DNA sequence: CGGATTTGACCCGCGC
DNA sequence: GCGCGGGTCAAATCCG
């Protein structure tokens, strides 16, 4: 029992019991079992250091060491404590068996109950009742001790606050996780519903293919016939615009799985099976990823040879949807657009960056100009997902891992994968939808009004030498931008680190115009070089790996682009998440050193280095629409 | 034993 | 037509 305190003070133990050291007048005596609660009043009329509790009318205060259940409830300014039984053998000690009610008079009453537990009993024991009379009876040591105690309690206050913040943070995280879970579930549910609906409508309109085809060409039924994609990688810009021939993205591999016996994951990919049943050239608006793969298949000319044995039950499943004839006027430029790729350059010692998706390696080859082999991966998170990626180390800097994504996920993505997928999706759309439109003038005007914004450290490089349009998100950071030579045929544009999260539904949908504008403007800049040469030998591996020595775009264009991109918070949020996910991967610790803070308050990503992170390189093939 | 990986073969487009 | 390079397949192999 603590006896040295001058003012009201208490000793507490971890379980929350404490001893009061001031006289307290009880409204009822402990023996009065009819009262479940005692109302205790502080009275400082006692000069001894023992805590005294007296009943009203009692002239003999009695020292009461008692324990208090500190998990007391706090109702407004009223704090109640449950007293534990202490020692019944001592005549001098009252053994309260009921709770005591304290009526705090002021000050710390607003402290949350959880804080009351440690710091505020409602009695203002520490500070508010430390009267001069109390101080007069204590010596300096005791005062110092009290001061120290006060400091400790203040520290405890802060700790309690911190604890409360942690709890709140945890609660918010839980809420966020729950929201993500619900979101994914809803997406899945929506996809199922839409597929069912589409199946029904397809049956109803089975005899009106021709009419439907025309409608599809006009984009009137795109929302009905096109299965929802949860992550588009640049190829689902507009359903009306993606009236492209499409067949099974996995048809080539999975429809053959019956014979191969190795790939047996095409059970629920009925859409693709159905598409092949009607011929690869009769598929339309199935999904953009399917279209991508179909296009790829056509480009490689392998589908006709190897898809000669489609399963005979193309329409057996309940999700089987009769394929519709595609428009025959799909030009090669559009085909090129479907081949759009998004490459991510990141420093990582790990063989592959963790992007949240599940991948299966299906091939590895040595690419020309790079001693490091290129690995080919296929997304295995869902049967039939056509997304593929290539992983290869940069020839110049082995620590740089180049991951190139292609295709669209045909399935909901976990939150961990959402970041990268959204980033690549947005980047791909940014590249693919680069056609000049009426929005350019608007965007241009907006850009020019913001050209004074600070130039971002990031870079955008546009090239005309790639067989496929490729956007590279360069997340590596080089102290010297010219450390690695850049091809002369690439245009480098300072670019903010960020990618629109949802191009279709956000101002970031204008990003394609941004890139287009960049392409357009580059012709206006003297000293800029836009090579139209198509060096097929200079393939993606080199393009993705050598983003150096590119002519610099004048700062005003750079800032223009920067400002436009930074205008969309989703853009930066997406890339921030992507960067975070990459950093979270095994060998990307270096990014932690380079990216100190990601500030999304105003749509900008703040990095610690002005040279470098978040380069966005775009390689666009303008001359070859057939690859 | 099933899934993932490896790796040689194959196909295709393109350039010469 | 041939060679080159990219991309993919699929049997063999590895691995948990």
Task: Describe the model.
It is a single chain. The protein has 627 residues and is an alpha+beta fold. It is built from 18 helices and 19 strands. It has helices at 113-118, 132-136, 140-204, 209-217, 222-225, 251-254, 257-260, 270-277, 288-300, 303-306, 332-338, 415-432, 439-448, 511-522, 540-545, 555-566, 569-584, 589-594, and strands at 10-12, 18-20, 24-26, 37-42, 52-55, 62-63, 67-69, 74-75, 78-84, 99-102, 341-347, 359-366, 373-379, 388-393, 400-406, 459-463, 470-474, 490-494, 615-619. A 9-stranded mixed sheet has the order 12-13-14-15-11-17-19-16-18. Strands 3, 4, 5, 6, 7, 8, 9 and 10 form an 8-stranded mixed sheet that branches. A hairpin with an 8-residue loop joins strand 13 (373-379) and strand 14 (388-393). Helix 14 (511-522) packs antiparallel against helix 16. The longest helix is centred in the first third of the chain and has 65 residues, at 140-204. It is elongated. It starts with 9 loop residues before the first strand and ends in an 8-residue tail after the last strand. The model is unreliable at 1-140, 203-338, 435-460, 478-572 and 582-627 (pLDDT under 50). It binds a DNA duplex (16 and 16 nucleotides) through helix 9 and strand 12.
């Amino acid at each position: 029992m603590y006896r040295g305190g001058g003012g009201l003070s208490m000793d507490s133990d971890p379980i929350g019991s404490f001893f009061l050291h001031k006289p307290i007048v009880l409204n009822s005596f402990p023996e009065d079992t009819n009262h479940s609660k005692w109302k205790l009043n502080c009275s400082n009329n006692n000069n001894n250091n023992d805590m005294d509790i007296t009943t009203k009318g009692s002239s003999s205060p009695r020292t009461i060491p008692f324990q208090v259940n500190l998990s007391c409830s706090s109702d407004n300014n009223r704090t109640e404590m449950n007293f534990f039984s202490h020692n019944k053998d001592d005549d001098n000690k009252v053994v309260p068996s009921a709770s005591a009610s304290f009526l705090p008079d002021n000050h710390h009453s607003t402290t949350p109950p959880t804080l009351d537990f440690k710091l505020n009993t409602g009695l203002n024991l520490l500070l508010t009742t430390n009267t001069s009379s109390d101080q007069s009876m204590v010596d300096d040591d005791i005062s110092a001790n009290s001061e120290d105690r006060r400091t400790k309690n203040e520290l405890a206050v802060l700790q309690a606050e911190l604890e409360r913040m942690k709890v709140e943070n945890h609660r918010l995280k839980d809420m966020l996780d729950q929201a993500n879970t619900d979101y994914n579930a809803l997406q899945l549910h929506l996809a199922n519903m839409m597929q069912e609906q589409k199946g029904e409508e397809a049956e109803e309109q089975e005899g009106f293919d021709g009419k439907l085809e025309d409608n599809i060409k006009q984009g009137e039924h795109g929302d009905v016939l096109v299965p929802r994609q949860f992550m588009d990688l640049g190829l689902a810009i507009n359903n009306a615009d993606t009236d492209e021939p499409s067949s099974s993205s996995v048809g080539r591999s999975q429809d053959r799985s019956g014979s191969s016996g190795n790939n047996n994951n095409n059970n629920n990919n009925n859409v693709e099976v159905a598409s092949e049943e009607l011929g690869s050239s009769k598929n339309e608006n199935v999904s953009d990823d399917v279209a991508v793969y179909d296009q790829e298949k056509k480009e490689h000319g392998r589908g006709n040879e190897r898809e000669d044995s489609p399963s005979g039950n193309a329409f057996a499943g309940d999700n089987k949807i009769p394929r519709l004839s595609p428009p025959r006027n799909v030009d090669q430029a559009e085909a090129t657009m479907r081949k759009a790729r998004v490459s991510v350059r990141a420093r990582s010692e790990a063989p592959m960056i963790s992007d949240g998706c599940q991948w299966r390696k299906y091939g590895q080859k040595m690419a020309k100009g790079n001693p490091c082999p290129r690995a080919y991966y296929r997304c295995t998170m869902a049967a039939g997902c056509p997304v593929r990626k290539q992983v290869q180390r940069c020839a110049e800097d082995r620590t740089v891992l180049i991951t190139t994504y292609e295709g669209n996920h045909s399935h909901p993505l976990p939150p961990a994968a959402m970041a990268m997928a959204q980033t690549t999706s947005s980047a791909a759309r940014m590249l693919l939808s680069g056609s000049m439109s009426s929005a350019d003038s608007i965007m241009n005007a907006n850009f020019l009004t913001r050209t004074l914004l600070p130039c971002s450290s990031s870079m955008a490089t546009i090239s005309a030498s790639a067989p496929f349009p490729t956007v590279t998100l360069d997340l590596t950071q080089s102290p010297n931008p010219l450390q690695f030579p850049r091809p002369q045929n690439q245009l480098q544009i300072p670019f903010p680190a960020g990618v629109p999260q949802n191009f279709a539904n956000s101002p970031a949908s204008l990003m394609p115009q941004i890139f287009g504008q960049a392409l357009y403007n580059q012709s206006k800049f003297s000293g800029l070089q836009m090579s139209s040469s198509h060096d097929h030998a200079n393939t993606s591996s080199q393009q993705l790996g050598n983003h150096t020595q590119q002519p610099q775009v004048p700062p005003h264009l750079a800032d223009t682009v920067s400002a436009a991109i930074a205008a969309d918070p989703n853009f930066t949020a997406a890339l921030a998440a992507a960067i975070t996910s990459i950093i979270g991967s095994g060998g990307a610790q270096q990014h932690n050193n380079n990216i100190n803070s990601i500030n999304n308050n105003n749509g900008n990503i703040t990095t610690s280095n002005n040279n470098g992170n978040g380069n966005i390189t775009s390689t666009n093939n303008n001359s070859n629409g057939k690859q």
